[in-house]
Amino acid sequence: MTTQPPQITSPAELIQLGKTAFCTAKVLLGALELRVFAVLDELPLTGPQLEERLGLHPRASRDFFDTLVALGLLVRAEGRYSNAPAAKEHLVPGKAAYVGGFLERSDRVLYPAWGDLTGALRTGKPRVTNAFREMLDDPDRRISYLAMMDALSTMLAPLIAQAFDWDTVKSYADIGGARGNLAGRVAQAHPHLSVHVFDLPPMEQPFHEHAERLGVAERATFHAGDFFADPLPEADVLTIGHVLHNWAPAERRTLIKKAYQAVNPGGALIIYDRMLADEPVDAENLVISLDMLLTTDGGSEYLAGECRDWLEEAGFTVEPARPLGEHDTLIVARKGG
Ligand SMILES: C[S@@+](CC[C@H](N)C(=O)[O-])C[C@H]1O[C@@H](n2cnc3c(N)ncnc32)[C@H](O)[C@@H]1O
């Protein structure tokens, strides 16, 4: 993790920061929308062939393809374009390590929302209508959202499976666990565990399909409900990950208090989020916090110290916060026996 903010020393760096960054982002997002990587996964193509396959005007298509080469996403050799290794692995729909679900949502939701950052800063109101539940009812958009969530939790799951002593744990529940990607992968790593996932009803069917795919269906149970209205499943260990940042502080405290009721005596609650450092050195997580302003009614990232206060207020004994992967922070909170 960066410990010092970068030193900006030249006008060129300011221009890079203020302009080039969003232009190059849109080149990648546009390439995904146009299915450049999917088309080139079939076979390498010349510029005119690729232009025709994608239905592009000739005016700037060569510049567009060459920008993708210069960004390291395509390779141009002997007059033909092909996917560079990272694009082949991560940007072709259907590949196991595809991260396009995340980027597609960036393009569709976040890019327009960031266009009116100042409006959100002036009003404190999000820039997208909060249509989360409607989105979940639309199978295509739900799958794209789940792919985005899975891309993140697949990276964190092995770390969470190791970050805690699961040997004495019998039951584990992931609250707001989406289609159970984290719970399923922790269950794969610890075959003695029975796992539970609590999430909204539209996640139930994707949960069952995903548990089958991960080979843990016999040990995995889905609990449909609203975590503000319904009781949480009781278990030795609960996790709440990438959930508290979607809500305002009062709602986070409510959820943590409910989690305390649900953790079995002697058990633990594990929280992870992209928490903020005490000093403003981590631009990535601060940007995610602004994402929360743009996309939720009351969400933001928060300090580990704030989370500790909410946990202690609920009755937990809190262990020191620790880094989880590149950007997340994990806190283990114990309930007395
Ligand atoms: C940002 S996602 C995090 C998913 C998962 N924990 C992860 O890290 O990949 C937030 C999750 O909270 C769920 N959620 C939102 N509101 C909820 C509610 N009122 N009751 C239960 N689950 C809810 C969403 O459906 C979604 O799966």
Automatic annotation (TrEMBL):
- Describe the location of the O-methyltransferase C-terminal domain by residue ranges: 130-316
Q: Which GO BP terms, alphabetically?
A: methylation
Q: Which residues cross the membrane?
A: none
Keyword annotations of the record: Methyltransferase, S-adenosyl-L-methionine, Transferase
Q: Does the keyword Nucleotidyltransferase apply?
A: no
- GO molecular function terms here? O-methyltransferase activity; protein dimerization activity
Q: What is this protein called?
A: Methyltransferase domain-containing protein
Organism, by scientific name, is Nonomuraea mesophila
Q: What is the lineage of its organism?
A: Bacteria, Bacillati, Actinomycetota, Actinomycetes, Streptosporangiales
